[in-house]
Write a structure and sequence with these properties.
The relative contact order is 0.15. α1 crosses α2. The protein starts with a helix and ends with a helix. The chain is built from eight helices and 13 strands. 25% of the residues lie in helices and 26% in strands. The strands form two sheets. Strands 5, 6, 7, 8, 9, 10, 11, 12 and 13 form a nine-stranded mixed beta sheet that branches. A four-stranded antiparallel beta sheet has the order 2-1-3-4. Keywords: Isomerase, RNA-binding. It comes from Gemella sanguinis. Its EC number is 5.4.99.-.
Protein backbone atom coordinates (compact mmCIF):
# COMPACT_ATOMS: atom_id res chain seq x y z
CA UNK A 1 0.00 0.00 0.00
CA UNK A 2 1.21 3.53 -0.74
CA UNK A 3 2.56 5.26 2.35
CA UNK A 4 0.23 8.27 1.97
CA UNK A 5 -2.82 6.03 1.62
CA UNK A 6 -1.74 3.96 4.61
CA UNK A 7 -1.37 6.99 6.87
CA UNK A 8 -4.57 8.74 5.76
CA UNK A 9 -6.60 5.53 6.19
CA UNK A 10 -5.79 5.18 9.89
CA UNK A 11 -5.41 8.81 11.02
CA UNK A 12 -7.46 11.98 10.88
CA UNK A 13 -5.11 13.47 8.30
CA UNK A 14 -6.39 14.05 4.77
CA UNK A 15 -4.41 12.72 1.80
CA UNK A 16 -3.06 16.24 1.11
CA UNK A 17 -2.04 16.73 4.76
CA UNK A 18 -0.43 13.30 4.76
CA UNK A 19 1.75 14.16 1.76
CA UNK A 20 3.02 17.30 3.54
CA UNK A 21 3.89 15.22 6.59
CA UNK A 22 5.73 12.65 4.48
CA UNK A 23 7.78 15.35 2.73
CA UNK A 24 9.17 16.29 6.14
CA UNK A 25 10.10 12.64 6.71
CA UNK A 26 8.39 9.57 8.15
CA UNK A 27 10.15 6.62 9.73
CA UNK A 28 9.40 3.26 8.12
CA UNK A 29 11.24 0.44 9.86
CA UNK A 30 13.66 3.06 11.26
CA UNK A 31 14.40 4.37 7.74
CA UNK A 32 13.50 8.00 6.93
CA UNK A 33 11.09 8.08 3.97
CA UNK A 34 9.92 11.20 2.11
CA UNK A 35 8.13 9.67 -0.89
CA UNK A 36 4.27 9.49 -0.68
CA UNK A 37 4.20 6.55 -3.11
CA UNK A 38 6.64 4.50 -1.03
CA UNK A 39 5.19 0.98 -0.69
CA UNK A 40 4.63 -0.36 2.82
CA UNK A 41 3.47 -3.72 4.11
CA UNK A 42 0.53 -2.57 6.23
CA UNK A 43 0.54 -5.80 8.24
CA UNK A 44 4.23 -5.91 9.16
CA UNK A 45 6.03 -2.60 8.58
CA UNK A 46 6.46 -0.17 11.46
CA UNK A 47 5.51 3.40 10.59
CA UNK A 48 6.28 6.22 13.05
CA UNK A 49 5.03 9.83 12.92
CA UNK A 50 6.22 12.35 15.53
CA UNK A 51 7.47 9.52 17.70
CA UNK A 52 4.15 7.66 17.61
CA UNK A 53 3.82 4.22 16.00
CA UNK A 54 0.84 3.62 13.72
CA UNK A 55 -1.05 0.35 13.79
CA UNK A 56 -3.05 -0.81 10.78
CA UNK A 57 -6.47 -2.31 11.34
CA UNK A 58 -8.33 -3.58 8.29
CA UNK A 59 -11.69 -4.35 9.88
CA UNK A 60 -13.58 -2.84 12.76
CA UNK A 61 -16.41 -4.47 14.74
CA UNK A 62 -18.57 -2.23 16.91
CA UNK A 63 -21.44 -3.07 19.27
CA UNK A 64 -23.84 -0.17 19.80
CA UNK A 65 -26.88 0.20 22.02
CA UNK A 66 -28.95 2.09 19.47
CA UNK A 67 -31.31 4.70 20.89
CA UNK A 68 -34.68 5.59 19.43
CA UNK A 69 -34.95 8.45 16.92
CA UNK A 70 -31.67 7.35 15.32
CA UNK A 71 -31.77 5.71 11.90
CA UNK A 72 -29.78 2.67 10.78
CA UNK A 73 -27.98 4.23 7.83
CA UNK A 74 -24.56 5.57 6.94
CA UNK A 75 -25.84 9.04 6.11
CA UNK A 76 -29.05 11.03 5.96
CA UNK A 77 -29.86 14.65 5.17
CA UNK A 78 -32.56 14.96 7.83
CA UNK A 79 -32.02 12.48 10.64
CA UNK A 80 -29.12 11.50 12.88
CA UNK A 81 -27.63 8.14 11.88
CA UNK A 82 -25.79 5.46 13.85
CA UNK A 83 -22.61 6.59 12.08
CA UNK A 84 -23.06 10.15 13.34
CA UNK A 85 -22.80 8.80 16.90
CA UNK A 86 -19.31 7.43 16.29
CA UNK A 87 -16.26 9.52 17.04
CA UNK A 88 -14.05 10.70 14.20
CA UNK A 89 -11.45 7.96 14.70
CA UNK A 90 -14.01 5.17 14.36
CA UNK A 91 -15.67 6.77 11.32
CA UNK A 92 -12.33 6.55 9.49
CA UNK A 93 -12.92 2.82 9.01
CA UNK A 94 -16.17 3.56 7.13
CA UNK A 95 -18.29 1.05 9.08
CA UNK A 96 -21.91 0.41 8.16
CA UNK A 97 -24.85 -1.06 10.10
CA UNK A 98 -25.39 -4.80 9.68
CA UNK A 99 -29.07 -5.02 8.88
CA UNK A 100 -31.50 -2.38 10.03
CA UNK A 101 -33.50 -1.40 13.07
CA UNK A 102 -36.54 0.82 12.76
CA UNK A 103 -35.99 4.43 13.76
CA UNK A 104 -37.92 4.00 17.01
CA UNK A 105 -36.42 0.59 17.84
CA UNK A 106 -33.66 0.40 20.43
CA UNK A 107 -30.96 -2.13 21.19
CA UNK A 108 -28.17 -4.11 19.62
CA UNK A 109 -26.66 -2.71 16.45
CA UNK A 110 -23.53 -4.18 14.91
CA UNK A 111 -21.40 -1.88 12.78
CA UNK A 112 -18.49 -3.11 10.69
CA UNK A 113 -16.63 -2.68 7.42
CA UNK A 114 -16.33 -6.46 7.03
CA UNK A 115 -18.68 -7.08 4.12
CA UNK A 116 -18.21 -10.84 4.17
CA UNK A 117 -19.30 -11.20 7.80
CA UNK A 118 -22.18 -8.75 7.32
CA UNK A 119 -23.50 -10.80 4.38
CA UNK A 120 -23.40 -14.01 6.41
CA UNK A 121 -25.30 -12.42 9.30
CA UNK A 122 -28.12 -10.95 7.22
CA UNK A 123 -28.47 -13.64 4.56
CA UNK A 124 -31.86 -15.40 4.92
CA UNK A 125 -30.18 -18.67 3.94
CA UNK A 126 -28.00 -18.60 7.08
CA UNK A 127 -30.97 -18.51 9.51
CA UNK A 128 -29.13 -16.31 12.01
CA UNK A 129 -31.43 -15.76 15.00
CA UNK A 130 -32.22 -12.20 16.09
CA UNK A 131 -33.90 -11.93 19.48
CA UNK A 132 -36.08 -9.00 20.53
CA UNK A 133 -37.88 -7.82 23.63
CA UNK A 134 -41.32 -6.50 22.68
CA UNK A 135 -44.20 -4.73 24.41
CA UNK A 136 -47.65 -4.58 22.81
CA UNK A 137 -50.88 -2.79 23.64
CA UNK A 138 -53.05 -5.90 23.66
CA UNK A 139 -53.20 -9.48 24.87
CA UNK A 140 -50.79 -12.14 23.71
CA UNK A 141 -52.36 -15.58 24.06
CA UNK A 142 -50.96 -19.08 24.40
CA UNK A 143 -52.17 -19.99 20.92
CA UNK A 144 -50.09 -17.15 19.49
CA UNK A 145 -46.93 -19.12 20.35
CA UNK A 146 -47.94 -21.86 17.91
CA UNK A 147 -49.05 -19.38 15.27
CA UNK A 148 -45.70 -17.59 15.37
CA UNK A 149 -43.83 -20.91 15.34
CA UNK A 150 -45.69 -22.05 12.21
CA UNK A 151 -45.25 -18.72 10.43
CA UNK A 152 -47.77 -15.91 10.07
CA UNK A 153 -49.14 -14.38 6.88
CA UNK A 154 -48.45 -10.66 6.71
CA UNK A 155 -50.75 -8.08 5.11
CA UNK A 156 -48.96 -8.37 1.77
CA UNK A 157 -49.47 -12.14 1.65
CA UNK A 158 -45.93 -13.09 2.64
CA UNK A 159 -45.68 -15.97 5.10
CA UNK A 160 -42.88 -15.59 7.61
CA UNK A 161 -40.42 -18.34 8.45
CA UNK A 162 -40.62 -20.28 11.70
CA UNK A 163 -40.10 -17.98 14.70
CA UNK A 164 -40.26 -18.25 18.48
CA UNK A 165 -42.51 -16.31 20.88
CA UNK A 166 -41.98 -16.41 24.65
CA UNK A 167 -44.73 -14.60 26.54
CA UNK A 168 -43.50 -12.92 29.72
CA UNK A 169 -46.67 -11.18 30.94
CA UNK A 170 -50.07 -10.79 29.34
CA UNK A 171 -53.40 -9.07 29.95
CA UNK A 172 -56.01 -7.32 27.83
CA UNK A 173 -54.24 -3.96 28.07
CA UNK A 174 -50.55 -4.79 27.75
CA UNK A 175 -48.30 -7.78 27.08
CA UNK A 176 -44.55 -8.36 27.18
CA UNK A 177 -42.60 -11.04 25.33
CA UNK A 178 -39.43 -12.19 23.63
CA UNK A 179 -39.59 -12.94 19.92
CA UNK A 180 -36.82 -14.55 17.89
CA UNK A 181 -36.76 -14.41 14.10
CA UNK A 182 -34.29 -15.38 11.36
CA UNK A 183 -35.46 -12.86 8.77
CA UNK A 184 -35.23 -9.11 8.43
CA UNK A 185 -38.26 -7.99 6.45
CA UNK A 186 -39.34 -4.35 6.65
CA UNK A 187 -40.97 -3.71 10.07
CA UNK A 188 -41.20 -7.49 10.44
CA UNK A 189 -41.79 -7.83 14.19
CA UNK A 190 -44.36 -5.03 14.16
CA UNK A 191 -46.17 -6.62 11.24
CA UNK A 192 -46.10 -10.05 12.85
CA UNK A 193 -47.61 -8.64 16.03
CA UNK A 194 -50.23 -6.77 14.03
CA UNK A 195 -51.25 -10.05 12.39
CA UNK A 196 -52.03 -11.29 15.92
CA UNK A 197 -54.26 -8.29 16.55
CA UNK A 198 -51.89 -6.31 18.79
CA UNK A 199 -49.69 -3.26 18.18
CA UNK A 200 -46.06 -2.85 19.20
CA UNK A 201 -45.44 -0.01 21.66
CA UNK A 202 -41.78 -0.77 22.40
CA UNK A 203 -39.15 -2.89 20.66
CA UNK A 204 -35.56 -3.66 21.58
CA UNK A 205 -33.11 -6.03 19.88
CA UNK A 206 -31.20 -8.16 22.36
CA UNK A 207 -29.00 -10.40 20.23
CA UNK A 208 -27.77 -11.33 16.76
CA UNK A 209 -26.65 -14.93 16.64
CA UNK A 210 -24.16 -15.41 19.48
CA UNK A 211 -23.68 -11.66 19.96
CA UNK A 212 -25.63 -10.40 22.98
CA UNK A 213 -26.17 -6.74 23.81
CA UNK A 214 -23.91 -5.53 26.60
CA UNK A 215 -26.47 -4.12 29.03
CA UNK A 216 -23.81 -1.93 30.62
CA UNK A 217 -23.91 0.18 27.45
CA UNK A 218 -26.28 3.09 27.87
CA UNK A 219 -28.41 4.19 24.92
CA UNK A 220 -26.11 5.76 22.34
CA UNK A 221 -22.97 4.17 23.76
CA UNK A 222 -20.81 1.65 21.91
CA UNK A 223 -17.66 -0.43 22.20
CA UNK A 224 -15.50 -2.74 20.11
CA UNK A 225 -16.29 -6.45 20.15
CA UNK A 226 -14.01 -8.59 22.28
CA UNK A 227 -11.91 -11.28 20.60
CA UNK A 228 -14.16 -13.94 22.14
CA UNK A 229 -17.33 -12.29 20.85
CA UNK A 230 -15.88 -11.94 17.37
CA UNK A 231 -14.68 -15.55 17.19
CA UNK A 232 -18.12 -16.86 18.25
CA UNK A 233 -19.89 -14.57 15.80
CA UNK A 234 -17.73 -15.67 12.88
CA UNK A 235 -18.52 -19.31 13.62
Amino acid sequence: MRLDKYISSITVYSRAETKKIIKKGVLVNNVLVKQPDYQVDEENDQVVIDGKSLFYQKHVYIMMNKPGNIISATEDKKDTTVIDILNEKDRLFKPFPVGRLDKDTEGLMLLTNDGELAHKLISPKKDVIKKYYVEVDGELKVEHVTIIRDGVVLEDGYKTKCAALEILTSNTEKSRAYISITEGKFHQVKRMMKSLGVNVTYLKRLSIGSLVLDESLKLGEYRYLTDTELKKLKK
